[in-house]
Amino acid sequence: MDKRLLKNFDYQLLIIALILCFYGLVVISSATQGLHVSDTFAYVRRQAIWVAVGMGGLLLAASIDYINYYRWSWYLYSCNIIFLVLVLFVGRDAGGSFRWINLGFFDFQPSELAKLIVIISLARLLVDLQNRLPSLIRSLPLLLLFIIPPILLIFMQPDLGTALVFIVLYFAMLFMAGVPLVNLILMACAGLATIPLFWSRLLDYQKMRLLVFLNPELDPLSYGYQLSQSMIAIGSGGVGGKGLFEGTQAHLQFLPEQHTDFIFSVLGEELGFLGAVLLLSLYFLLIYRILKIGSFSKDRFGALLCLGVAALIAFQVMVNIGMSLGIMPVTGLPLPFMSYGGSAMIVNMASLGVVLSVGMRRFKIQF
Questions:
Q1: How far, in Å, are 87, 97, 333, 354 from residue 158 at the CA level?
Q2: Where would I find the beta strands (DSSP E) of 163-257?
Q3: Residues forming beta bridges with residue 93, ordered by sequence position
Q4: Which of 94, 223, 275, 325 fits as disulfide partner to 208, beta carbons 3.0 to 4.6 Å?
């Protein structure tokens, strides 16, 4: 990396991300104390390793001129489709879902990597179609042809939550690319008209999750159990929480998936409202820095990359915390930089590396 680029390196963004990762390690350490395993700190050690690997991915992504991502976008998109197809045939079965490819030393989740690749590829496509976007009619078939394959492949895994992420990315980036709001509303209405079709394709447990969201008392001992225990945990935390390592919902194993999907519930119980406010403040600062870097980008492609990463993080935070509070359906989306998991951590850190690459190269280097 050219030393002159380091003058534009956004150390604030990196520091905020590392604080979030450390915060996550602390909460995971507490959340896993009640698990019936021989070494409860194994989860923390693995997560720390993934944070370190993610840091490597961040530095690697930042060291590459982001213009290269524009050039490589269609190769990346093709590889992305291949991985998403491959996981349907050789993926590891976990509760009826095929989302991971076992690499021996690591369970790779292609849908996590797909989030970053779709952001890069969609930014390239929007830049190429810049003059055709205001009308949208001529470019709509190409845009739909681009976004539908990854959504359908992820839906088939099945992974409804991640499929929704792509839809949000799609609309957010179209809006920032200059597509009139009225056109986006019409597209959204057309999409809502397909809900009966998608509902018929949902599995029983996915339908029950949505129904339980609308009526938490519908099945409190089965499909509504996670939601009920999560709300109990957060409500019992009060303002200051019960204290770190003092929570009961996770330690007594009332709360399922306490170190992954419902990590926020553990935080709410043990650190209370103040701990949650601290977490949300860190996310706000992180997203603010990403958007600020995007606003200083020297070109449209860089700005769209930053917007896509900001929208990705913001939506996942909103959905994960929302489902823990019972105001969003349970989807299984991880909490960025906090939930236990290797693929999500590495991809999130690499995404920040792409943003840093945009920021470092916002000015031409003077020789």
A1: 11, 6, 13, 28
A2: none
A3: 98
A4: 223
Would you state the structure tokens that stand for residue 41, as one six-digit string? Answer: 């700190």
Task: Specify the 3-state DSSP secondary structure of 107.
Answer: strand
Q: Do 117 and 77 contact (CB within 8 A), yes or no?
A: yes
Average pLDDT over every residue of 52-62: 95
Looking at this protein, which amino acid is placed at residue 343? S
Domain residue ranges of the chain, discontinuous segments joined by +? 3-360
Contact 360/5 with Cβ under 8 angstroms?
Answer: yes
Of all helices (H) and strands (E), which one includes residue 54? helix 42-63
Q: Give residue 190's pLDDT.
A: 78
Residue type, 9: F
- Establish how many alpha carbons lie within 13 A of residue 244's alpha carbon, considering only the half-sphere containing its beta carbon: 10
| Whole-number Å distance between alpha carbons of 75 and 352 | 21
Asked if residue 286 lies in contact with residue 269, where contact means CB atoms within 8 angstroms, the answer is no
pLDDT at 202 over 60: yes
Tokens of 197: 């079709």
**Confidence at 26, pLDDT banded by 50, 70, 90:** very high
What's the whole-number mean pLDDT along residues 121-150? Answer: 81
User: Within its chain, how far is the Cα of 72 from the centroid?
Assistant: 22
Cα separation, 178 vs 59, in Å, equals 31
Mean pLDDT taken over the chain = 85
User: Rounded distance, CA 91 to CA 85, Å?
Assistant: 10
The token duo for 295 is 């606003």
Give residue 261's pLDDT.
85
Alpha helices in the chain (DSSP H): 11-31, 42-63, 67-90, 110-128, 140-155, 160-176, 181-192, 195-201, 204-214, 225-237, 263-295, 300-325, 342-360
Our CA angle for 5, 7, 13, nearest 5°, is: 95
| CA distances for 358 relative to 65, 279, 337, angstroms | 8, 26, 21
